[in-house]
Design brief:
There is one protein chain. The protein is α/β, with parallel strands linked by helices. The chain has one domain: Response regulator (Rossmann fold), CATH 3.40.50. 45% of the residues lie in helices and 20% in strands. Strands 2-1-3-4-5 form a 5-stranded parallel sheet, with helices on both faces.
């Protein structure tokens, strides 16, 4: 069985590096993008099984990426990540069909790994 492909879209390199390493140790195939525009291109070209998506990024916000992929009928599970969350943003994201909403800084990467396993199995 091929490993699940996860795309991490976040402009914080320390986050993408830590998550990439953790998921690769778990056997996932991982790719990354450091801004929303590059992330959207990778979503369309790579067709990942799961997307971890930051909200505040250069060029295109996470919510803009999410809105765009949903208008394209892309139903890939999305885990939204943010250090600047608020109720309105979370509500909008849920209306766009996110699978989970994570607040940074992360308390336990093992919980994120378990969540990703649930969403990709």
């Amino acid at each position: 069985m091929n490993p699940s492909h996860i795309l991490i879209i976040d402009d914080e390199h320390i986050i993408t590096r830590a998550l990439s390493r953790a998921f690769q140790r778990e056997g996932f195939q991982v790719s990354t993008a450091s801004d929303g525009e590059a992330g959207l291109k990778k979503i369309l070209s790579e067709k990942p099984e799961l997307i971890l998506l930051d909200i505040i990024m250069p060029k295109m916000s996470g919510l803009e990426v999410l809105e765009h992929i949903r208008t394209q009928q892309i139903t890939t599970p999305v885990v939204l990540m943010t250090a600047y969350g608020d109720t309105k943003t979370e509500t909008t994201a849920k209306e766009l069909g996110i699978s989970a909403y994570l607040t940074k800084p992360f308390n336990n990467i093992e919980d994120i790994i378990a969540l990703v396993h649930r969403l990709t199995s």
